Give the backbone structure.
Amino acid sequence: MSDRSGPATIRDVARRAGVSTATVSRVLAGIGNPKVETSGAVLAAVEALDYRPSAVARSLRMRRTNTFGLIVTDIQNPFFPELVQAADDAARKVGYSILLGSAAFDEHRAVHYLDLMADRRVDGMIVASSQVAEESWRWLSESPVPVVVVNAEPANVPITVITSDNRAGLRTAAEHLIGLGHRRMAYVRGLEGITADQPRVEGFRAACRDAGIPDADLIELRGDAQFAGGERAVSELLSSGGDVTAIACHNDITAIGALRALRAARIRVPADISVVGCDDIAAASWVVPALTTIAQQKADMGRMAVERLLAMLDAREGGIVPETIRVPMVLQVRESTGPARLGGIGS
Amino acid sequence: MSDRSGPATIRDVARRAGVSTATVSRVLAGIGNPKVETSGAVLAAVEALDYRPSAVARSLRMRRTNTFGLIVTDIQNPFFPELVQAADDAARKVGYSILLGSAAFDEHRAVHYLDLMADRRVDGMIVASSQVAEESWRWLSESPVPVVVVNAEPANVPITVITSDNRAGLRTAAEHLIGLGHRRMAYVRGLEGITADQPRVEGFRAACRDAGIPDADLIELRGDAQFAGGERAVSELLSSGGDVTAIACHNDITAIGALRALRAARIRVPADISVVGCDDIAAASWVVPALTTIAQQKADMGRMAVERLLAMLDAREGGIVPETIRVPMVLQVRESTGPARLGGIGS
DNA sequence: ATGAAAGCGCTAACAA
DNA sequence: TTGTTAGCGCTTTCAT
């Protein structure tokens, strides 16, 4: 093989097989009915030259890259890998691949990836990041390339959204606790402004109201959606003498921080206080006690996002109406929740 | 803007600015000294048409994609995200992006990504996966595109490798434990055949021997590098009456499984038994007690891999000699290790 | 059933 | 300083 300059091209193959490049292209694409000898010759040449068609050239010609962009808030957040994997699985099955961008909580980076993916001419984008400014949402929604937003809800922008039903999810959490007899509870919120924060508290509160628990009985704390925030919030709660029998948290990481604070204070979970998280990350079942949580169906969401993109691609000129799909969250009971103690902590 | 067919091209811009495409190209690349009016006109046209150069076309022409492929064993393994993020950071800084592939423990998938990335004409590849067959390693090492292998050590193949110094790392772990007075210890190995498995046990054993601890005193257990394996191995150890004061584990996930088994058996950590892990994943500091571990410098490794690739690209015809770089691991003392109890567990 | 030729959008000689 | 032209590697009419 003449390794003179880079990988073999379709011309090299054509030459060696004694046919035209068009024929090579057809044979490889399985188009037409080539004579056995021709296709044989082509295949042999391909083999001999170790020819692999350039996806770059093909993309240019076909005006499609068979690639979807996927932007996540932060790949280091254990919530995302499962989503990424599922999206990749779904994409791979239909011959697409995923170009990943991790915004690392940085809005500039998010924009950077948006641009990058536009430049790369991805055939569609999945944006699973709330670090996106209003104007970028607008830009996305007006873009001709199909976009699916995951777990974020751009206000007043017509765009397809797939999101966990946070409100209903935290309602379930509250109902679970209330069913166990809890009435004095605390809720550790996420980072201010985070998309899911508001609906989650609201869902929780709504269930409380329905159960006749006065608004004032629910202690609301501010976390940061990280371990440290959960730990801090709960230790402050304890030192300020907050008297609750259950703590619900914005997410699992927060809840795991809460567990640690409780443990430091020698409070037993769930005997003294129950704790419930949200997301169902892997670590939720690793901690002691294993965390009861409201699971997000991450894999489903990743798969759905890709399917949606594919549908939009098909429909194209048909025009698919932007729609908000709420994926149910499911209660996962483990060890961190139990019946409410009757007295206060000290009793 | 005439939105007739897809995004604006360089020709659209040229036409609108009344110049040639070459001029547009130059102005945007900052080459030559265009007259102010020309460059002004070009820039204006670019703005007006919202022109973004096609990376696809540029790649075809330049014969480089400004992309590195990165294949990981399993993106859901908490070890990888930090590596990915670091690689992406480093790459982004020099105008490269990362095409990610998660093999999900599947050798076929790994090969799939290898092919995919070759087809995409990535400018370099980082392979952080041991799910790669001998023949693929060979193929990689002979490939004209620069390759860096992370945390895997293809046997008898001349290729650049960046790996944690597992042997030295686990030696450090053993020394830490021995320094605390432990002499009867168990070691939970990883999945059979996993690259790091062998060097880690060996390092651990070596330190034991140096300290005059008879080989027979070290109980060796087989885990699976997952939570379940650690839990199972340790509960079997306990039920078979294994009498140790410390347990070292192939990785943190295993160690966290071990913690759970110990807890279930009401054995206190570290009062009764010390536990040490390896990797330093986020969850290591979340569990109770927080896990003492041997940290891998994942971010460094990701960065180094990219730098290496860049160097190879520069050197090109110069030819860089494949080299194995061992990155030190660092002992991270937390709460799960302490002085050895004098008697046995029951004493 | 196959080939010739055009063109996807860009950059880089080479000319002017 | 700018334009003309060729060509990166592929697919796809349109002929034959």
